[in-house]
Amino acid sequence: MAEAITVARPYAEAAYKFAVEKKELSQWSKILQLAASIAEDDQMKLLVGNPRISVSQLSELILDIGGKKFPAEARNLIMLLVENKRVLLLSQVSQLFEQLKAQHEGVLEAKIISAFKMQSDQVDRLINNLERKFNRKIEAQVSVDPELIGGVKVEIGDETLDASVRGKLEAMAVALKS
Protein backbone atom coordinates (compact mmCIF):
# COMPACT_ATOMS: atom_id res chain seq x y z
CA MET A 1 0.00 0.00 0.00
CA ALA A 2 2.79 2.41 0.88
CA GLU A 3 4.40 1.79 -2.48
CA ALA A 4 1.20 2.65 -4.38
CA ILE A 5 0.89 5.89 -2.40
CA THR A 6 4.52 6.73 -3.17
CA VAL A 7 4.00 6.16 -6.89
CA ALA A 8 0.68 8.07 -6.90
CA ARG A 9 2.05 11.11 -5.04
CA PRO A 10 3.74 12.88 -8.00
CA TYR A 11 0.56 12.60 -10.08
CA ALA A 12 -1.56 13.96 -7.22
CA GLU A 13 0.87 16.81 -6.59
CA ALA A 14 0.93 17.75 -10.28
CA ALA A 15 -2.87 17.77 -10.45
CA TYR A 16 -3.00 19.77 -7.23
CA LYS A 17 -0.50 22.39 -8.41
CA PHE A 18 -2.38 22.77 -11.69
CA ALA A 19 -5.74 23.07 -9.89
CA VAL A 20 -4.38 25.70 -7.50
CA GLU A 21 -2.85 27.65 -10.38
CA LYS A 22 -6.17 27.62 -12.26
CA LYS A 23 -8.23 28.10 -9.06
CA GLU A 24 -10.15 24.91 -9.83
CA LEU A 25 -9.62 22.80 -6.69
CA SER A 26 -13.23 21.71 -6.29
CA GLN A 27 -13.62 20.90 -10.01
CA TRP A 28 -10.46 18.79 -9.98
CA SER A 29 -11.61 17.07 -6.84
CA LYS A 30 -14.76 15.94 -8.69
CA ILE A 31 -12.78 15.03 -11.82
CA LEU A 32 -10.36 12.82 -9.91
CA GLN A 33 -13.15 11.18 -7.92
CA LEU A 34 -14.98 10.37 -11.16
CA ALA A 35 -11.81 9.01 -12.77
CA ALA A 36 -11.09 6.91 -9.67
CA SER A 37 -14.60 5.47 -9.66
CA ILE A 38 -14.25 4.53 -13.33
CA ALA A 39 -10.87 2.87 -12.71
CA GLU A 40 -12.19 1.02 -9.64
CA ASP A 41 -15.09 -0.54 -11.54
CA ASP A 42 -14.76 -4.33 -11.58
CA GLN A 43 -15.22 -4.57 -15.35
CA MET A 44 -12.66 -1.84 -15.91
CA LYS A 45 -10.14 -3.68 -13.72
CA LEU A 46 -10.52 -6.73 -15.96
CA LEU A 47 -9.78 -4.60 -19.03
CA VAL A 48 -6.74 -2.94 -17.44
CA GLY A 49 -5.00 -6.29 -17.04
CA ASN A 50 -6.10 -7.64 -20.41
CA PRO A 51 -3.19 -7.90 -22.88
CA ARG A 52 -5.65 -7.71 -25.81
CA ILE A 53 -6.64 -4.16 -24.88
CA SER A 54 -4.20 -1.57 -26.16
CA VAL A 55 -3.20 1.56 -24.27
CA SER A 56 -5.10 3.72 -26.74
CA GLN A 57 -8.24 1.57 -26.47
CA LEU A 58 -8.16 1.70 -22.67
CA SER A 59 -7.56 5.46 -22.65
CA GLU A 60 -10.36 6.02 -25.14
CA LEU A 61 -12.76 3.88 -23.10
CA ILE A 62 -12.08 5.71 -19.84
CA LEU A 63 -12.29 9.10 -21.53
CA ASP A 64 -15.54 8.15 -23.29
CA ILE A 65 -17.10 7.12 -19.99
CA GLY A 66 -16.12 10.44 -18.41
CA GLY A 67 -17.19 12.33 -21.50
CA LYS A 68 -17.23 16.11 -21.28
CA LYS A 69 -16.59 15.98 -17.53
CA PHE A 70 -12.90 15.55 -18.32
CA PRO A 71 -11.26 18.76 -19.56
CA ALA A 72 -8.19 18.52 -21.81
CA GLU A 73 -5.73 18.56 -18.90
CA ALA A 74 -7.57 15.75 -17.10
CA ARG A 75 -7.66 13.77 -20.32
CA ASN A 76 -3.88 14.18 -20.58
CA LEU A 77 -3.41 12.99 -16.99
CA ILE A 78 -5.58 9.92 -17.57
CA MET A 79 -3.77 9.06 -20.81
CA LEU A 80 -0.43 9.44 -19.02
CA LEU A 81 -1.57 7.12 -16.22
CA VAL A 82 -2.79 4.53 -18.75
CA GLU A 83 0.44 4.75 -20.78
CA ASN A 84 2.53 4.29 -17.62
CA LYS A 85 0.34 1.37 -16.51
CA ARG A 86 -0.73 3.32 -13.44
CA VAL A 87 -4.44 3.77 -14.12
CA LEU A 88 -5.35 1.65 -11.09
CA LEU A 89 -3.61 4.28 -8.92
CA LEU A 90 -6.36 6.81 -9.66
CA SER A 91 -7.97 6.06 -6.31
CA GLN A 92 -4.75 6.89 -4.46
CA VAL A 93 -4.17 9.95 -6.65
CA SER A 94 -7.65 11.18 -5.74
CA GLN A 95 -7.10 10.53 -2.02
CA LEU A 96 -3.75 12.32 -2.00
CA PHE A 97 -5.25 15.21 -3.94
CA GLU A 98 -7.99 15.51 -1.30
CA GLN A 99 -5.36 15.62 1.44
CA LEU A 100 -3.46 18.38 -0.36
CA LYS A 101 -6.71 20.26 -0.95
CA ALA A 102 -7.63 19.97 2.74
CA GLN A 103 -4.20 21.29 3.76
CA HIS A 104 -4.58 24.17 1.32
CA GLU A 105 -7.97 25.01 2.78
CA GLY A 106 -6.62 24.73 6.33
CA VAL A 107 -8.66 21.63 7.14
CA LEU A 108 -7.37 18.53 8.90
CA GLU A 109 -9.12 15.21 8.58
CA ALA A 110 -9.48 13.26 11.80
CA LYS A 111 -10.65 9.75 12.59
CA ILE A 112 -12.28 9.57 15.99
CA ILE A 113 -12.65 6.05 17.28
CA SER A 114 -14.64 5.59 20.45
CA ALA A 115 -15.37 2.55 22.58
CA PHE A 116 -19.05 3.56 22.68
CA LYS A 117 -21.35 5.62 20.47
CA MET A 118 -20.68 9.27 21.23
CA GLN A 119 -23.47 11.82 21.47
CA SER A 120 -23.30 14.77 19.10
CA ASP A 121 -22.46 17.27 21.87
CA GLN A 122 -19.53 15.06 22.96
CA VAL A 123 -18.25 14.89 19.38
CA ASP A 124 -18.64 18.66 19.02
CA ARG A 125 -16.67 19.31 22.21
CA LEU A 126 -13.92 16.94 21.14
CA ILE A 127 -13.69 18.55 17.69
CA ASN A 128 -13.58 22.04 19.26
CA ASN A 129 -10.72 20.91 21.54
CA LEU A 130 -8.85 19.42 18.57
CA GLU A 131 -9.35 22.59 16.53
CA ARG A 132 -7.85 24.64 19.36
CA LYS A 133 -4.94 22.19 19.75
CA PHE A 134 -4.08 22.11 16.04
CA ASN A 135 -5.23 25.67 15.28
CA ARG A 136 -7.01 24.38 12.15
CA LYS A 137 -10.50 23.37 11.10
CA ILE A 138 -11.16 19.68 11.73
CA GLU A 139 -13.39 17.40 9.66
CA ALA A 140 -13.98 14.20 11.58
CA GLN A 141 -15.20 10.71 10.86
CA VAL A 142 -16.50 9.04 13.98
CA SER A 143 -16.59 5.27 14.42
CA VAL A 144 -17.07 2.80 17.26
CA ASP A 145 -14.60 0.08 18.26
CA PRO A 146 -15.69 -1.81 21.41
CA GLU A 147 -12.19 -3.34 21.68
CA LEU A 148 -10.95 0.01 23.01
CA ILE A 149 -12.81 -0.93 26.24
CA GLY A 150 -13.33 2.74 27.10
CA GLY A 151 -12.22 6.20 26.06
CA VAL A 152 -11.35 7.49 22.63
CA LYS A 153 -8.58 7.35 20.04
CA VAL A 154 -8.00 10.17 17.53
CA GLU A 155 -5.93 9.84 14.35
CA ILE A 156 -4.95 13.03 12.52
CA GLY A 157 -2.50 12.50 9.70
CA ASP A 158 0.34 10.43 11.11
CA GLU A 159 -0.35 11.54 14.69
CA THR A 160 -2.40 9.38 17.06
CA LEU A 161 -3.84 10.61 20.34
CA ASP A 162 -4.77 7.49 22.30
CA ALA A 163 -6.90 8.12 25.39
CA SER A 164 -8.46 4.68 25.36
CA VAL A 165 -8.38 2.16 28.17
CA ARG A 166 -6.89 -0.41 25.82
CA GLY A 167 -4.09 2.01 24.84
CA LYS A 168 -3.32 2.74 28.48
CA LEU A 169 -3.27 -0.98 29.31
CA GLU A 170 -0.88 -1.65 26.41
CA ALA A 171 1.39 1.21 27.54
CA MET A 172 1.36 -0.17 31.08
CA ALA A 173 2.24 -3.66 29.79
CA VAL A 174 5.18 -2.26 27.84
CA ALA A 175 6.37 -0.31 30.88
CA LEU A 176 6.19 -3.43 33.08
CA LYS A 177 8.16 -5.49 30.55
CA SER A 178 11.00 -3.00 30.23
TrEMBL record:
Record keywords, A-Z: ATP synthesis, Cell membrane, CF(1), Hydrogen ion transport, Ion transport, Membrane, Transport
GO CC, alphabetical: plasma membrane; proton-transporting ATP synthase complex
Domain of life: Bacteria
InterPro entries: ATP_synth_OSCP/delta_N_sf (IPR026015), ATPase_OSCP/dsu (IPR000711)
Predominant location: membrane
Membrane-crossing segments per the record: none
Membrane topology: Peripheral membrane protein
Keyword Cell membrane: yes
Family: Belongs to the ATPase delta chain family.
Alphabetized GO MF terms: proton-transporting ATP synthase activity, rotational mechanism
PANTHER family assigned: ATP SYNTHASE DELTA CHAIN (PTHR11910)
Gene: atpH
Protein name as annotated: ATP synthase subunit delta
Cited function: F(1)F(0) ATP synthase produces ATP from ADP in the presence of a proton or sodium gradient. F-type ATPases consist of two structural domains, F(1) containing the extramembraneous catalytic core and F(0) containing the membrane proton channel, linked together by a central stalk and a peripheral stalk. During catalysis, ATP synthesis in the catalytic domain of F(1) is coupled via a rotary mechanism of the central stalk subunits to proton translocation.
A Pfam family reported for this protein in Swiss-Prot or TrEMBL: OSCP
Subcellular location: Cell membrane; Membrane
